[in-house]
Amino acid sequence: MNQRLQRLADQIQRTVATLIRDEINDPRLTGFVTISSVKVSPDLGYADIYVTILEPSQDGGMNREAHQESLKVLNSAAGFLRTELARTMKTRTTPRLRFHYDEVTAYGNHMMNLVGQAMQKTQESEKNYLDDGDE
User: Fold this and answer.
1) Tens-place pLDDT, residues 88-108
2) Which residues contact 58 (CB under 8 A, 6 or more apart)?
3) Angstrom distance (rounded) from CA 16 to CA 10
4) Where in the cell is it found (predicted)?
5) 105 burial class (0-12, 13-18, 19+ CB within 10 angstroms)?
6) d(CA 133, CA 37)
7) Which of 16, 36, 50, 70 has the most crowded Cβ, counting Cβ within 10 A?
8) Which segments of the chain does DSSP mark as H helices, in order?
C-alpha cells in the first residue's frame, strides 16, 4: 500500500472509531468495538474495516457467530458512517465502508490466553513439586 493510501486508511480508522463510539447508539451493538486495521482499495472505491468486538458475555472472544449481530449493525450503519466520514475528510470521493470480523487479532488474543493459562499451570505444578520435596 502506498503512502497516500496508508494515510487515508489511518484517517478513516481514527474517524470511524470515534463515530462508532459517539454516534452509534444501537442496543444490538453490545460489545466494545476495536478497529484493528483499514485497507483502502487503490481506486478509493472501498475501505475494508477489520474489527474485533469484546462482548461482555464472551470470555474467550473466539466465537465468530457471537459477533455476527454486531457486524450486521456496523454494516447497516456503513452508509451513515460514510456520510459522516465525508464531512470530515478532505477528499473528492469517500470509499464505501465494509466491516469484517478480524480473526487474526481474535486468534492472537486466544493464543495469548492459552499461553497465560499454561504458564499459570506450570507455576502451580512447580510450587507443588517444591512443596512435596520439602517434606
Assistant:
1) 888 889 999 999 988 887 778
2) 31, 66
3) 10
4) Cytoplasm
5) middle
6) 51
7) 16
8) 3-23, 68-76, 78-88, 103-133
Residue 3 has a CB neighbour count (10 Å cut-off) of 7
User: What is the structure's pLDDT at 32?
Assistant: 84
Q: What is the pLDDT of residues 55-92, one digit of tens each?
A: 766 555 555 666 788 889 999 999 999 999 999 888 88
pTM of the model: 0.75
pLDDT at 64: 62
**Residue 61 dihedral angles phi and psi, to the nearest 5°:** 80, 5
CA distances from residue 134 to 20, 75, 121, 123, 131 in whole angstroms, order as listed: 57, 61, 20, 17, 5
The candidate with the shortest Cα–Cα distance to 37, out of 64, 10, 60, is 10
* φ/ψ (deg, to 5) at 21: -65, -40
**Binning pLDDT at 50, 70 and 90, where does residue 49 land?**
very high
Say which amino acid occupies 61: G
Residue 131, C-beta contacts closer than 8 angstroms, at least 6 positions apart = none
